[in-house]
């Protein structure tokens, strides 16, 4: 087992930025639950969804359920993911319980709005922002993320397929216990929360990998680096192998750069101006760190 998993990084645990993210995220998640979701019997996915079902159907205290149901997942995170992660997640869960108790004293059980669509959308937005901030702080309030990663390593299914399957079961129980309409609104809440979590964790500015193969490779390199101010990576490859002339091939440089989605079209047009027959393809990437990814050169006109 790696040292990373064995040791607790107390500097990370007490990092002011991480604590700020977790506290802000917990407040958003608690407001979503108390102000929008619970008054309308709307569910989120994962542990939170299970806790809401049991709370509303059997009357067991929600805060107790959030702690008890999360315990085995937090233990699994401690053993399989990392002790620092487990400590920060435990702090997040207990802080959520404290904030929910405080909000309970403010008597907002009637909800912020009676409009079901607004409740589903804004409840999902607040929950998604909250979960995203907590993840950025290094923790979790939903242990389902832990079991999804664990099961994925021992299953042919992807993490996305496992998540969809487990949360589909939760929504099915919501439909059985509370009716089809609350279950449908719960799906809307859950989907909104997922999208907001992605935006908060990965950022609103989506990056794209642009790969170019061109006969005018030196001009294309100069264009990307000097005119657009982007760093490039160059792979040695071969072009050719066309169906009619399969035996003909030429060595070439395969040029790859990372740009924002707002820059892709402009860069493609500039490359095609240099080489109308240039071949390129675009891939969406989830995370970029290091290197030169912001535009630092002059703007190409």
UniProtKB/TrEMBL annotation:
<keyword id="KW-0472">Membrane</keyword>
<feature type="domain" description="DUF2179">
    <location>
        <begin position="234"/>
        <end position="290"/>
    </location>
</feature>
<dbReference type="InterPro" id="IPR015867">
    <property type="entry name" value="N-reg_PII/ATP_PRibTrfase_C"/>
</dbReference>
<keyword id="KW-1003">Cell membrane</keyword>
<keyword id="KW-1133">Transmembrane helix</keyword>
<keyword id="KW-0812">Transmembrane</keyword>
<dbReference type="InterPro" id="IPR003740">
    <property type="entry name" value="YitT"/>
</dbReference>
<dbReference type="Pfam" id="PF10035">
    <property type="entry name" value="DUF2179"/>
</dbReference>
<feature type="transmembrane region" description="Helical">
    <location>
        <begin position="12"/>
        <end position="36"/>
    </location>
</feature>
<dbReference type="InterPro" id="IPR019264">
    <property type="entry name" value="DUF2179"/>
</dbReference>
<feature type="transmembrane region" description="Helical">
    <location>
        <begin position="116"/>
        <end position="135"/>
    </location>
</feature>
<protein>
    <submittedName>
        <fullName>YitT family protein</fullName>
    </submittedName>
</protein>
<feature type="transmembrane region" description="Helical">
    <location>
        <begin position="162"/>
        <end position="180"/>
    </location>
</feature>
<feature type="transmembrane region" description="Helical">
    <location>
        <begin position="56"/>
        <end position="78"/>
    </location>
</feature>
<dbReference type="Pfam" id="PF02588">
    <property type="entry name" value="YitT_membrane"/>
</dbReference>
<dbReference type="InterPro" id="IPR051461">
    <property type="entry name" value="UPF0750_membrane"/>
</dbReference>
<feature type="transmembrane region" description="Helical">
    <location>
        <begin position="85"/>
        <end position="104"/>
    </location>
</feature>
């Amino acid at each position: 087992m790696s040292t990373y998993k064995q040791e607790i990084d107390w500097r990370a645990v007490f990092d002011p930025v991480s604590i700020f993210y977790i506290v802000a995220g917990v407040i958003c998640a608690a407001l979503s639950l108390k102000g929008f979701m619970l008054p309308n019997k709307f569910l989120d996915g994962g542990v939170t969804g299970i806790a809401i079902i049991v709370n509303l159907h059997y009357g067991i205290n929600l805060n107790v359920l959030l702690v008890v149901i999360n315990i085995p997942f937090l233990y699994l995170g401690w053993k399989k993911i990392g002790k620092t992660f487990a400590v920060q997640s435990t702090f997040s869960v207990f802080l959520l319980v404290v904030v929910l108790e405080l909000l309970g004293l403010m008597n907002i059980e009637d909800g912020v709005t009676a409009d079901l669509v607004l409740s589903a959308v804004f409840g999902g937005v607040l929950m998604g922002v909250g979960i995203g901030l907590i993840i950025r702080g290094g923790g979790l309030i939903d242990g389902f993320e832990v079991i999804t990663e664990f099961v994925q390593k021992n299953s042919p299914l992807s993490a996305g397929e496992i998540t969809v399957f487990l949360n589909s079961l939760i929504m099915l129980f919501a439909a059985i216990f509370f009716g089809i309409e609350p279950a449908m609104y719960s799906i809307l809440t859950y989907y909104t929360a997922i999208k907001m979590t992605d935006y908060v964790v990965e950022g609103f500015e989506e990056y794209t990998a642009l790969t170019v193969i061109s006969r005018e490779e030196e001009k294309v390199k100069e264009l990307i680096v000097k005119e657009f101010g982007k760093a490039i990576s160059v792979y040695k490859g071969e072009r050719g192998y066309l169906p009619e002339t399969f035996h003909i091939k030429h060595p070439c440089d395969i040029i790859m750069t990372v740009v924002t989605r707002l820059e892709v079209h402009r860069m493609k047009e500039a490359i095609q101006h240099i080489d109308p027959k240039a071949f390129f393809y675009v891939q969406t990437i989830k995370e970029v760190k290091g290197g030169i990814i912001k535009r630092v050169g002059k703007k190409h006109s």
